[in-house]
Design brief:
43% of the residues lie in helices and 20% in strands. By secondary structure, the protein is α/β, with parallel strands linked by helices.
């Protein structure tokens, strides 16, 4: 039984009378048991999970035993060095996390309605979108919908996709190179990568530069999960060279500061440089490589199932930069790199 196909109703023993029996069993699934189950999964030990949640270990054990008996499944394999999830347990873990996230959303949104807020949407976005485009786009959105609230968190593109899949957010924005699996995708924006150098760097006089020419110099790289870093690793391998990475940093501002400190050259999007690097006596040199032009995409699980606030946000973001003539989302050049 896979996590994707798991449904609590399918666990109801078939001999107990069909839909009515399944409904009765489902009413026995409570949030406390789901929370304790998640704690056991994370701690890999029932006693530690009970201590973390402030409940006696015997009470946790009984809840777990009753749940397994109710649905006729085994959730954990008891090992000498802890507890390992069975396939049914892995499936329940996914749904337990989604369920608790949804309950949290209910509490937050109801509290907001009592304070005058009329809607709420959770978003995940990569660093490129947050630095370059979302400040202005969200400002315009709030100008038209002042009573709505947005919860925005920054994640690497792969984590954006995972978060939307798992229900942590309704809407995500990620790199066009990321594998979006079964999610619905829409064009958002495009940007161009540039090489950031000091004014006294040997490349500073160049109008444009190929990425391969930068490989003679030390690089300041973004964190290892970023789509830009993964793309540069791939491009260096394609050129038959290695990336002389001197340091990993967490953001575009840190890239510019390290370049300013003569730690190497860096790659960031052009609009991010305009926001961050222009006042630092640095130079941005456009890349000649085709892959340096990047597309950012909006991802959702199902556009038709978005909340009313989510639909407003999706429509607003899709209208932010209409596709140029003769281009479609399906026609975007993209590299299917794992975890981009």
């Amino acid at each position: 039984m896979s996590a994707s196909s798991f449904d609590l109703e399918t666990l109801a023993p078939k001999h107990q009378g069909g839909a009515l029996a399944a409904s009765a069993l489902l009413r026995r699934v409570d949030l406390t048991t789901l929370r304790l189950f998640i704690a056991i999964c994370e701690e890999k030990n029932l006693t530690r999970a009970a201590s973390r949640e402030g409940i006696a270990a015997s009470a946790v054990s009984k809840r777990l035993h009753d749940f397994e008996a109710t649905f006729g499944v085994t959730l954990f394999a008891r090992l000498s060095k802890g507890m390992a999830l069975t396939p049914a347990g892995e499936a329940l873990l996914h749904h337990a996390r989604v369920t608790l996230l949804n309950v949290e959303k209910i509490a937050v949104e109801l509290a907001e309605y009592s304070n005058g807020v009329r809607g709420h949407v959770r978003m995940l976005a990569n660093l490129s979108a947050i630095v370059q485009f979302l400040p202005e786009d969200l400002s315009q959105f709030f100008g038209a919908h002042g009573l709505l609230r947005v919860d925005l968190q920054e994640r690497a593109s792969g984590a954006v996709i995972k978060g939307v899949e798992e229900g942590a957010a309704e809407i995500g924005i990620c790199s066009g190179e990321a594998e979006t699996r079964s999610l619905e995708t829409f064009h958002y924006r495009h940007d161009d990568l540039v090489v950031v150098v000091r004014a006294d760097h040997p490349l500073a006089a160049r109008k444009r530069v190929g990425f391969a020419d930068t490989l003679h110099f030390d690089h300041v790289g973004l964190h290892a999960a970023s789509s830009i870093y993964l793309r540069t690793q791939y491009a260096a391998a394609q050129a038959g060279k290695s990336l002389r990475l001197r340091i990993h940093v967490p953001g575009f501002d840190a890239v510019c500061r390290m370049v300013q400190a003569d730690m190497g050259v860096g790659l960031i999007p052009d609009r991010a440089f305009n926001v961050i690097g222009k006042g630092m006596n640095l130079k941005a040199i456009p890349l000649t490589d085709v892959w340096a032009r990047r597309d950012l995409r909006i991802v959702v699980r199902h556009a038709g199932s978005l909340s009313s606030t989510g639909r407003l946000m999706l429509n607003h973001l899709r209208a932010a930069e209409p596709l140029p003539d003769n281009r479609t989302t399906a026609g975007f050049a993209r590299s299917r790199m794992a975890n981009a």
